[in-house]
Amino acid sequence: MLAFDSAHGNGMGTGPDLEEMLSQMFGMGSGMPPGFGGPGSRSKRGDDEEHPYQVTLEDLYKGKTTKFASTKNVICSHCKGSGGKEKAKAKQCASCQGKGSKQGLRSIGPGMVTQETIICASCQGKGSIYAQKDRCKKCKGVRVTEARKVLEIYIPRGSKEGDKIILEGEADQVPDQEPGDIIFGLVQTEHETFRRAGADLLAEIEITLAESLCGLSRVVLKHLDGRGLHIQHPQPRARVLKPGQVIKLVGEGMPHKKSELKGDLYLEIKVKFPEYGWLEEKQVLAKLKELLPTPGTPIEADVVDDVTYDETASLDEFGASAGGDTGWVDDDEEEIEPQCAQQ
N or C: which end of the chain has fewer CB within 10 A? Predict the structure, then answer.
């Protein structure tokens, strides 16, 4: 609900009264409908409380139940939420004239204000107030007291980041209102081994060059539930595991909610090559060369140069060499004169 700030005028002389202008623009004014002030404006349901809740990928894979202590406002058990002593009579709140709410203006920009309905701070929205001597001794007239309660959060297996865990009616209690909910939004922490996409998982495994060429049979990974995953990869028909190759373990991904089905686990192969100097015996090296595939067809060229190379180069340096215009101009360079257009 926007309006011009009455202190600045409307640029056309003395503007109309703010209440009259709001009434014309939005149907508001002294006769405001329920929802914009008065006893009928109080919401019948309290506000929800939302909090982020960090979980690990293991928590989401296996499911988790956790308990925690919560301190919240509850209706005073002594005065039943009235705020006054037994048989004491409350008087109309002078601050809000018994409405329980007040109208206030809030600046939202240069020359622009918005009108808001706020709960009366004096009577806490009730519209009436007790004299100091008549107030409840337990809650001091506030109508609520603090209470400590143990709450339990259950995270179903297969949950994902962004899912909401709702504890219904566990938010602060307010007299004459249904309490709101406590809502926890799941935030997954980064995992050092696995990445998740939907119900699928991705991880890298490192194998040796010997395993790449000759096959492997060992536990290659520890899963989120603590199981070791053993891979048997023989070497039939010269089938080699190559760097960057991906193998899929069907049914080893994340579980689906409320189902026994699971996604898949994708393993990307990383091959660890030997360090420099690992093999210095020439006879063994020659034998290894005989066993490995031979180079392809030689490249033929009219001119062949022996070039030097740097083994420590990185692709981070790619594009760093200067090229193109160097900014140097030859003084003897002939000037190019404009030519006449040909007929």
Answer: C
2 with 112: CB under 8 angstroms?
Answer: yes
Name the nearest CA neighbour of 91 among 37, 60, 63, 133. Answer: 133
List of residues 6+ apart from 2 with CB closer than 8 A:
108, 112, 113, 114
Distances (CA, A) of 50 to 43, 166, 180, 186, 216: 18, 9, 10, 11, 50
For residue 92, the cross-strand partners are 128
pTM of the entire structure? 0.68
Alpha helices in 54-116 (DSSP H): 57-62
* Radius of gyration over every alpha carbon of the chain, rounded to an integer in angstroms: 38
Contact 157, 255 (CB under 8 A): yes
Do residues 95 and 122 make contact, with C-beta atoms less than 8 angstroms apart?
A: yes
Task: State what percent of residues in the chain have pLDDT above 70.
Answer: 80
182 — pLDDT class (breaks 50, 70, 90)? very high
Q: What domains are there in the chain, each with its CATH number?
A: 44-90+130-190 (2.60.260.20), 195-272 (2.60.260.20)
230 Cβ partners below 8 Å, 6+ apart? 217, 218, 219, 220
| CA distances for 100 relative to 34, 83, 90, 117, 123, angstroms | 12, 15, 13, 10, 7
